[in-house]
Protein 1
Amino acid sequence: MTQLLFKNARIFDGTSAECAEGMYLLVADGRIQEVSDRPISASEARVIDVGGRTLMPGMIDAHIHAFASDVAVQRVEAMGEAYRTAHALRMLTHALDCGFTTVRDIGGGNYGLYKAAADGLFVGPRYFYSGKILSMTGGHGDFRQVEESPRYQSVCGCSSTIFNTVAVIADGVDECIKSTREQLRQGAHCIKIMGSGGVASPTDPIWMNQYREDEIRAIVNECVERRSYVSAHCHPASAVRRCVEFGVRSIEHGTLIDAETARFVAEKGAYIVPTMVIIAALVELGRKLGFPAQSQEKAEYAWKQAISGMDLMRQAGVKICFGTDLMGSMYDQECREFTLRSEVFSPLEMLRQATSIPAGMMMLEGQIGCIAPGAHADLLVVEGDPLKDISLLAANGRNLRTIVRGGVVIRNELL
């Protein structure tokens, strides 16, 4: 692999507000080898003169669903695997063009897409996935309409019932353990559970807590033994608190959180991945795109508290990650998440949320989301100063002069 030598760079390392100028950075074998304030000798390296621009880590979108090709689950299922895969490739290519060199698919991702990305069958981000989400019967992963009959005859004793592209149904400790082990066997990097009601599911109220304590603790224990972790979909404060108390590492959404719960999450050192852009997009476009009426109502309810909930997280000092949760044709609004978060957070806070903080949450600290020797060479050159103007990163990649993923130059507009 060709060596890369960046020179005359202003470096944001993923954490510090102090950005050293006139820096040099050497890449070899896909990783950062050296960072120095003095010239680095590398006669065979390809030289990229950053020209004083900002060199920063590639960003991380910690909440995507690559196969969610429509806002209506029934249409996602009806169009079939080939269509969903084509959507995934379009979505992931767009993410990389926007500077997201790593994504975490937190529901529905699989080994096939991971292997295709790893083998270079398409040019996309570094891809991590949680496999099928675990949901209780009637939970947020159960998309059957209220009038549908039970499907007891389809229950598989080896891995629970697979109802849809996103989730499996597992009830009771034994089923939860078996389903967790099955997803981990299939290469899942973590396990996600449905810890509360949600927007897209038709029969569960958004305020509903889901899964018993013994079920959640059993799932957490399996992941600890695998040196992995559990993520939980949660909207209400009650669900957030109990999931964190029972050992969940990452809370997805946390939309209806309160101040006391936010302080509890911060004290426990857990993470939250708010997803503002999907809620805003559904409120604006859901009806036009055929989002089910009962789900549209829940989205509008969640949006009323989404921004204020995020502010409570900030005040409490919660470790917050960048995530988007976009579906179907909304995939191209990924960068808008920065614009929505700017109502609460500073540019520096958002830069950390998209780099070093999710890296820590994913147990990949020092590997991604940072500029340091030994880290993967996932790098961006930004035209302008994103620490002063976050809108530079909210422009679908138009202000990115260079994109490097794993030491491979994806884009370079610097001569």
Note: Residues 59-334 form a domain with the TIM Barrel fold (CATH 3.20.20.140).
Protein 2
Amino acid sequence: MSSAERSILHVDMDAFYASVEQRDNPDLRGKPLVVGGGSNRGVVAAASYEARDFGIRSAMPMAEAKRRCDHLVQVKPRMSHYKEASKSIFAIFHEFTPLVEGLSLDEAFLDVTASVKLFGSPATIATMIKQRVLEDTHLTTSVGVAQNKLVAKIASDLDKPDGLTIVMPDSYRERLDPLPARVIPGIGRETLKRLQRINVVTVRDLRTAEDRDLEPIFGRFTQKTRDRASGLDDRPVIPNREEKSISAEETYDRDLSKPADMERELLRLSERTAARLRKAALGASTVQVKIRRADFTTYTRQRSLKPPSNGTDQIYEAARELLAGWLSSNPGAKIRLLGVGGSKLAPAAQADLFENDGMRDGHSAIDDTVDEIRQKFGPLSVGRAKTLDR
């Protein structure tokens, strides 16, 4: 089916984490609020619209957010509450169409092409979804309606919060052309700087620019970028997206400077990542380590695992080798953030017990025991001695 025959919604919850906190605690309503880690070294996970009036945005360092607003209210994330609200919201989506592509806890594409005969026009369906979400969760959402995913996503951001925006092909020039070029996927901060140097600032500038100006920036993706600026996108909505990676990371109040401390934190992160892989019944074929120095320079290193694994020991050993290799090239470095992730995921396969010395689905019986204890008594109920602070 071509994009011209589709009816696509992009549904985006408004300041989701912050809105859940304000919903659950009336004392927080109307106040500049951020959800994020408990220290100045953390970053903002979500900002209320009152906080955004001060220029505070997600991913901003917490210290910077507090400098911008001296009466800022900060609360720690409560992921279980956000997941519960998300579950209710996605259940509503599925009442209108089975074609739901979740992008995160608070954002999804919906293909309602086949739903219009039952529920009415795409705009009517969007209105019904907004009303149902408000009634069931007491949260607001913004919806973009278009014939493709690209334009629907752009549209949902044009009238926040609590907006409903329809952008169809006959209004592309009017609605899209004046927007900043950064609304087009794939145009980040550095690309934007290069575009500004050739006087490309808006979507219209990008759509009408000469190939000779764009090719040094986008190379073989020049035509694809121009198509995006013209509102063209043939990607279908893909329901039940498989996870591409599972990871855990931590930003530290004090930079890690001792290798022993780094390895301890690396083991903690490996435990969290491996436990998440086991819970999802997945094994990782690749292990990645993310390292951010005190000056915010960020590095990633990765290596393959054969066979794929979700065992703590296997994940940790690979991560430890990657960190050791990085440290050998960066002696004396101080680390602000560490992360451990698994990618190229595949269903965990039952291993041969005689060939793998008691390994089960890529992990050990000890991992199973630890998982069972933590599920019953909490995540801090048991841990490896090496992960304890000295």
Note: The CA atoms of residues 265 and 387 lie 7 Å apart.
Protein 3
Amino acid sequence: MKRALSSRAVFIILSFITAVLLFGSMVLQNVYFKADQVDSSLFISPTTFSRKPNSNVTLQVKANIQGAAVIAGAQFYLEYDQSLLEFSETTTTPPFTSLQSVADEGVVAWTLLPSTEFGTTVQLSGEVTFGSVAFKTIAEGQATVRFRQSDSSITAIDSSRSPALYNAIVSIQDSSGIISERNGEAAKPTETLTKSAEVLPTFSAQKVLRNEPVVSDVAAKLLVSLKYVGGISVRFGTTSDLPLTIEASELSQHHLIDFSALEPETRYYYQLIVYSEDKKTSLKTQTKSFVTSSAGGRIADQKLTSVAVLPEVATKTAKVVIAARDDQGKVSSEQLTVVPVSGSAQVIEQRALNGITVATVSSTITTNQSVDLSVRAGEREVAQAKLTFDPSIADHTEPMYKFPGPIQITPNNAALLFLVAAGMILFGMLFIRLARSK
């Protein structure tokens, strides 16, 4: 008969397994739960500054990273007015080191990599400081230091895609300042001089949470949700230089931007510019695009009809935006109606123009509720939508929004989790055995 292992032997084996798992986790820097891709908002701090001529100004390059991101490096192109500012130097902040820093014709080209002591990548989240850029003020005027969006990037690794590299930057905020003899004593580089930088503590964390177009053949509606209240202007056009501009009429967390007089079957490029309440600072998103549909469709097809709700979590009212298409992708000419099928809500207004239907749904209930909506062409349902009314968010500065991506467990991490779970079970069995033994 084989002899069973003693309690002491089992304890030693389990301790060894646990030590191996902990050491392996530290060496491999495993991330158990990871979104597909993580977004970051790139900004310069302070967003506004005030200096006398012949003074120094130091601006920090930062990012707000929404989640845990594995960063392999960063590249920033910072443009400045050579008649007002003279470049001095760049200084990196751990865990980064500077690979290249060159100033030429009003542009600072700056490339950063993780320091060798941290390895080839570094995992970061929240507010991250990459480093600082120092200038000398040489003349009076209004100076702006801005990122060249097309060339700036934060290179991150998406391990769920074997792996894949992507640019994590989704929005950019610049910095502007006044250089004048009337500004009083010149400040030290680390001081914040202007009150406007202090009364906007949240704007450096401003983020575009939603940027979704609903498109017909000759029109489009752009649904935009911001993290904080802000103004919106949209640059757009059929070419990447974006010659046209649309300005939103009011400051809000949620904006519905109208594009009209568009050409069918045409690609349009657009970029959002979000500005603060005092219009002294702004951020820019990456350039995106949409393609208008073909005209002449008939019966709406459920699979190809687009429907979106703004906001998805509302206090009293929300907009439902629908673009119906037939089975060939052409804009349907059918008249649509929006009908609440669950919850206490009513459609107080509905309009159809240029192939897009917009309905306003309202609720007077004072408690949280979910409402299911049916989009119908006559008696036939062509789309469904859902929204939530929550009166308690009226005083919140941040809207509710979803996690940026589905949670995934990679094969390596799944195996590690299995081993940890097995170890916990064995530990439990050991403790039960020790408790029963004399």
Note: Residues 21-35, 184-202, 395-413 have pLDDT under 50 and may be disordered.
